[in-house]
Design goal:
heterotrimer; A alpha/beta (about 240); B mainly alpha (about 300); C mainly alpha (about 290); A: about 240 residues; 6-stranded mixed beta sheet; 4-stranded antiparallel beta sheet; 9 helices; C: about 290 residues; ABC transporter involved in vitamin B12 uptake, BtuC; two-stranded antiparallel sheet; 2 strands; globular
Chain lengths: ~240, ~300, ~290
């Protein structure tokens, strides 16, 4: 059953067409990879789904509701959470407050004891329970990413959008990160993953949508898609196809 | 409530009770100074409730103050002052909401500019209306004593502190702190940032209007250039920033010394008050960016051996 | 018809004043709230030189321009550059520069009050009538307009046809990339700020030929300049000129047909409309 779908999604910035007539759908509990070379429009697509950008044309459909005209805060309250390409934490607050921020205004509107509980659970799940009182400025890079993930997950979202969440991690951190995302599935979330790291894509994504120059080249089962000559050409150029 | 919160509440009530005794001891110079202090504390603290976490510098205090004064000036013959004050508060809140809806969706700069000229704008319109109607000003003659005005202002101050405390512990307070840290994150965790800012802006709007309404009898004659004096806005901003907006009692720390300084300067070098304002702004920007409480906090940190 | 022309004449000088602020905010990214005081200072200088040295206000710029340039350049280097360096993002810089330039504006007013007193100053220069399209106007307004046109034209040509001018436009449009293409951002910002202040001061000298000024009138000019810059789109020269003309015309309309005491209200109404419907201004870019 389709949880989230886009159809005819287009974004123009003046003369530049960043995303052109994109259509795909994501099934419930799936992890969909949105991949492609730099500048192919992946982040722009994610931004349009989450409400950071308004599509020039097209429809974003989430459980039979159209999202494309809604402001970001309404989309978030419907159960769509995200992380950002450049980690955005709240510098004046502690780790646990950062996570609480994700639960107070979402579709579950937690407060008081239940909020504390949910935040603690979320921190446990990302492995940050022991650092709950720490200040953001003291954290390592991967720890800030964990906090952002916890914040996105604490509101019990239906769809999670990850914008290059695994970028900039060393091999051991990458393993931890991949395991974390695997574990998200157990919580019943549907994930759309924008990524560059091929290992992660292979091990995490059930299906992939490959984009280049704003358009979809191909979609399908991850294994098949990554072997496809068109995809190889898009990433590496003609000679290696 | 935690024990810390009980302590703070007790401290607040004791301070208010002590301050309430002042008119019983003196009803001349010291009462007058205390009226200034209490008035500016209400103005600066309510200002800081909005402008502190959002970092939007509001220069609208004078405009709301004037509106409040006029509510009293127009209504005191038919209604008691104590009915007019809440009416002024409601009007202030409504007008703040309108201004907020128009300007708070945009960046802080537009808001500052808009509020900069707001008092002047309303003054122009009021002058025009008054000239057209033939009445250049209003006499507000009541038998309310200065002590009663003082207690009213003190009560308003208490209200502001209680409200500020409530907001700090509420979802609204949390939302506005998140907005101040990162507005994009705020939107993506489900906060309606525009609405939040507008609601919060109604607080200084209402309070400033009520201060104006309470003090109208003290001015006796209300006319546009008196009621809408832009300098009030600048004084409020300086006092709040000087004290520091990080804590609810921060502005109070700025109000007290600045009031005395202003008193001193107005009597000895009356022409240099503008210069003082200018120097104060520069001091805030370069020496005290977090205000006095920021300074105390960093001194405390250094005294604790520089541990992070 | 004569409302239109008076409005255009007024608008021309407004364009000059707003142009200075446009450079300071658009290129140097400083919201300079002391702008009006710089204008009044330029007016004072013209007044003083005319009354005491019989120097024509049209020539005062020779003296005012270099002094204004130096003064503004120093203000940028000593007071504003430390703020630029310490600001972590654009919002912080805007807030700091608003507070700092506020301080400067008050200091400016204080200094002017101390040196010139609080009286209005005005003088009569070229107040002879000139006939255009059948209506009479003061020669001083016309001369001021012509000078403004020449100056604005010079600025426009400079911004579009010299290397430094183009570098400034680059800085206004995309400050982050400007450094990448070899533009010395901090030096350029200082020059832009100094240039903006100079243009404003010269504008003040011109405006003093037909408007009465005093130490406290700076604020209203700052407000109008701000409204014009935002209306036209920050950083855009044509936008500033067109917005200034519009404001001049609308103000004159309101002053003649309704009440001269409502000019600021008219400007504000325009401002609100722009904020509600097109906050990036007529020619501005929507910041993503």
């Amino acid at each position: 059953m389709s949880e989230l779908s886009v159809s005819g999604l287009t974004k123009r910035f003046g003369g530049l067409v960043a995303v052109n007539d994109l259509s795909f759908s994501v099934n419930q509990h799936e992890i969909l990879g949105l991949i492609g070379p730099n500048g192919s429009g992946k982040s722009t697509t994610l931004n349009m789904i989450s409400g950071s950008l308004k599509p020039t044309e097209g429809i974003v459909n989430f459980r039979n509701r159209e999202l494309q005209d809604l402001p970001a805060h309404k989309i978030s309250r419907l159960g769509v959470s995200r992380t950002f390409q450049l980690v955005r934490t709240l510098p004046s607050m502690s780790v646990v407050e950062n996570v609480m921020a994700g639960a107070v205004f979402g579709h579950k509107r937690l407060w008081g004891k239940r909020l504390q509980q949910a935040a603690s659970e979320a921190l446990e799940r990302v492995g940050m329970a022991d650092k709950r009182g720490a200040a953001i400025s003291q954290l390592t890079y991967i720890d800030t990413k964990r906090v952002e993930l916890a914040r996105a997950m604490v509101s019990d979202p239906r769809v999670l959008l990850l914008d290059e969440w695994l970028a900039g991690l060393n091999p051991s951190e990458l393993e931890i990160g991949i395991d974390l995302i695997h574990s998200l599935r157990e919580q019943g979330v549907t994930v759309v993953l924008v990524e560059h790291v091929m290992d992660a894509i292979r091990s995490l994504c059930d299906r992939c949508v490959v984009m280049a120059s704003g358009q979809m080249i191909i979609e399908g089962n991850t294994h098949d898609v990554l072997q496809h000559p068109e995809v190889i050409k898009a990433y590496l150029g003609d000679d290696d196809a | 409530m935690t024990s810390k919160e009980w302590r703070q509440l007790t401290l607040l009530l004791v301070a208010v009770a002590l301050m309430a005794l002042i008119p019983l001891g003196d009803d001349g110079y010291w009462l007058s100074i205390c009226i200034s202090i209490v008035m500016f504390t209400a103005l600066a603290t309510s200002w800081s409730i909005f402008s502190g976490p959002t970092h939007y510098i509001s220069l609208a205090s004078a405009a709301f103050f004037g509106i409040g004064s006029y509510v009293t000036a127009l209504g005191f013959e038919s209604l008691s002052l104590w009915v007019l004050v809440p009416i002024a508060g409601v009007m202030g809140a409504l007008i703040a909401a309108l201004i907020g809806l128009a300007t708070l969706r945009l960046s802080g700069v537009y808001f500052v500019i808009f509020t900069l000229g707001l008092a002047e704008l309303i003054r122009q319109i009021t002058t025009w209306v008054q000239n057209a109607s033939g009445q250049k000003g209003f006499y507000v003659l009541t038998d309310v004593t200065e002590s009663q005005l003082y207690w009213a202002l003190l009560g308003l101050c208490l209200f502001v502190f209680l409200l500020g405390g409530l907001i700090e512990r509420s979802r609204l307070g949390f939302a506005v702190r998140i907005i101040g840290d990162d507005e994009a994150v705020a939107r993506h965790v489900g906060i309606n940032t525009a609405l939040t800012k507008v609601i919060l802006f109604m607080v200084p709007g209402a309070v400033a209007a009520m201060v104006g309404a309470i003090l109208a009898p003290r001015y006796v004659y209300i006319e546009p250039s008196l009621a809408f004096a832009p300098i009030l806005s600048f004084q409020v901003v300086i006092m709040a920033l000087l004290g520091g907006t990080g804590r609810l009692w921060g502005p109070l720390v700025g109000v007290v010394p600045f009031t005395f300084l202003w008193e001193f300067l107005s009597s000895t070098f009356p022409n240099q008050t503008t210069l003082l304002l200018g120097v104060a702004f520069l001091v805030i920007v370069f020496v005290l960016p977090q205000g006095f409480i920021g300074l105390f906090a960093s001194i405390k940190r250094r005294m604790n051996g520089g541990r992070a | 018809m004569d409302i239109l022309i008076t409005g255009i004449l007024l608008g021309g000088t407004y364009a000059l004043i707003a142009m200075g602020l446009n450079l300071q905010y658009g290129v140097a990214r400083i919201m300079n709230l002391a702008n009006g005081e710089m204008l009044v200072a330029g007016g004072f200088a013209a007044f003083w030189f005319y009354v005491n040295q019989a120097l024509s206000p049209l020539l005062t710029w020779v003296l005012v321009a270099p002094v204004a340039f130096l003064l503004n350049w120093l203000i940028y280097q000593i007071i504003l550059r430390p703020l630029v360096k310490r600001a972590k993002n654009r919002g912080m810089l805007e807030r700091d520069s608003i507070l700092a330039t506020f301080g400067l504006s008050f200091i400016g007013v204080g200094v002017m009050l101390a040196s010139f007193g609080g009286d209005y100053f005005s003088y009569s220069f070229a107040a002879t009538p000139v006939v255009i399209f059948g209506d009479t106007f003061g020669l001083n307004r016309v001369l001021s307009f012509v000078a403004a046109v020449i100056l604005c034209g010079a600025v426009y040509l400079w911004m579009h046809f010299t290397r430094i001018g183009m570098a400034m436009r680059a800085l206004a449009v995309e400050p982050r990339s400007a450094g990448l293409v070899g533009i010395k951002v901090s030096k350029l910002a200082a020059i832009a700020f100094a240039l903006g202040g100079t243009i404003t001061a010269v504008g003040g000298s011109l405006i003093s030929t037909y408007l009465t000024l005093d130490a406290s009138t700076g604020v209203v000019f700052t407000l109008k300049a701000l409204i014009i810059v935002i209306m036209g789109g920050v950083g855009d020269i044509r936008g500033t000129i067109i917005a200034a003309l519009m404001l001049g015309i609308i103000e004159t309309l309101v002053a003649s047909l309704i009440d001269p005491g409502l000019t600021l209200a008219a400007a504000y109404l325009l401002f609100i409309l722009i904020l509600l419907f097109r906050p990036q201004g007529l020619f501005g870019r929507v910041r993503s």
